[in-house]
Structures are given as structure tokens and as C-alpha cells.
Amino acid sequence: MVRETIEQFTKLQTLDSRIATIESQLAKIPEMLKESLERFEKVELEKTTAQDEFQQVKTEFLAAEAAAAEQANLLASAQKKLTSVQNNKEYEAALREMDNLRKNIANTEEIVKLKKAAMEELEQLISTKTAESEKFGKAYETDKSEKESENKSLFDEVGTLRREREDFAATVKKSLLSKYERIRTARQNLAVVEVFEEVCTGCNMKVPPQLAVEVKKERELLQCPYCQRFLYSDKKHEAEAAAAETVKPAKKAS
Length: 254
Fold this sequence. Notes:
- By secondary structure, this protein is mainly alpha-helical.
- It has two domains: about 150 residues, Helix Hairpins (Orthogonal Bundle); about 70 residues, no CATH class.
């Protein structure tokens, strides 16, 4: 009876462990997709930011070009006026105006040069970010497709396991099942463990020697006094350990 109960608990525990593993995998899938999506969105944002900055710089570039052209026209007009001045005062004023216009033109042309260089850098950045966006976008879609497929497979498996678990649990005596469920919940799905060499393999605590003996006899369902898990003795495991002990080489006399 005790062996039968232990075997029932062991099968339940195997099912519960697999179900818990799948549920943990399913919980991680959205996080994996989140990382892939965030990588794609980050590059998309960088690309959009570069595109916006490019448009701003282009507007400033065109404005500077227009200003330089206007100042060049003003300089041409000032040079024409120079031939029609009436006195030295007008002549000096015309020269000052032309000098200021030349300085303004030089400054504006420098701005045009800088803006053009900035536009070229931004165009290169946009090209790079566009390529990265396409790469990470495809990677995200691939990850999404794979995870959806994996999701379905896991959902199908866990559904089958839950039905199998429910059917099998119905064959276990209710009072025993209640004890199993209580310990399983408290001990992270590990409710039944082997006692080996007088040690509970669930909490790794040494149990009283007499308890270890009684577990081997399988007369009653016994629990670890420390973690409350159900205990069983694996006769094959014990026999292998005993056999290994007998073949150990004798210690040499000093």
C-alpha cells in the first residue's frame, strides 16, 4: 500500500514538474519577444530622429544658400553704385557696405558648407539605421513567428498534461492527495523524495536512523521531520551504493 502510494505521488510529481517547467517557459516567451521588439523600436526611433534632424538641417541649408545668393546680388548692386557716387563720403560708405556684404557672404557660405557636411553625415546615418531597422524588424518577425509556433506546441503539451494529471489524481485517495498537494505547494512541486544514506534528498538533512530504517520497511507513509516531504527508499539505489562500498580498495597500512 505504501509503495503504491509512493508510486502514485511520484507520477503526480513528474507531471507537476513538467507542467511547472512549461508554464515557466510560457512566462518567458513574452519577455524574449519584448527584448527583440525593443531592439527594433530603438533603431526605428534613432532612424526617425536622424530623418527629422536631416529635414531641419536641410531647411537651414536652403535658407543659408538663399541668404548667400541675396547677399551676392546686393554686393553686385553695391558695386554698380560705386561708379555713380558723387563724393568721397558716398564712396567710403559704399566701400563699407561692400566690405560688410563680403564678410556676410563669407560667413553664410561657411554655414552652407557646414550644413552640407551635416546633411551628408545624417544621410549616411539614416542609411545605416534603415539597414539596421530592416534587419531587426525581420529578426523580430522571425522571433514572433517562432515563439507563436513554440507557444502553440507548449500550450498543446501542457493541456494534455493537465488532463492526464486530472485523470490520474482522481485515482488517488482524497485524503492522501490533499496531503500531497499541501506539501507540493509548500515545497516547489517536490513532495516525495528519496532518503539515501539516512539523508533526506529534499532538504539534505540527516534523518533519525530509526526513521530511515522504517522508510525501508514500507509499513507506513513517513515524512521528513524537517521539510515534511514524503520519504521513500530506492532499493536499487541502496544496493548499488552497498556494492560500490564493498569494492573499495583497502587502505594501506602505514
